Amino acid sequence: MTKTLLTLIMPDDVAQHVEDLLLQHPERVPGFTSTATYGHGPAVPLLEASDLVSGHTPRTQIQMLGPETDMRAVLDIIKQELPRAHIFFWLQPVIEAGYL
The pTM is what? Predict the structure, then answer.
């Protein structure tokens, strides 16, 4: 079965809510990785003075791997539980994944 990578990019203040939500669904998300990152560009609101000075704003990236149906179900759960969370996402097919 082909795996799909789901990537979520969100404001830092939303990240803990999303992580808690993902942990409530181990049947869909057996694990995930979160990383600190920065948002750039006109689609990213710069709200803090430090954001305006630096030209970017802190974000959290969460990635998880699983069957496409599970990753789409995760998106549905997030949309239902956090409808205005301002989370950007994308889905990518994965050619191969495993442990070395």
Answer: 0.86
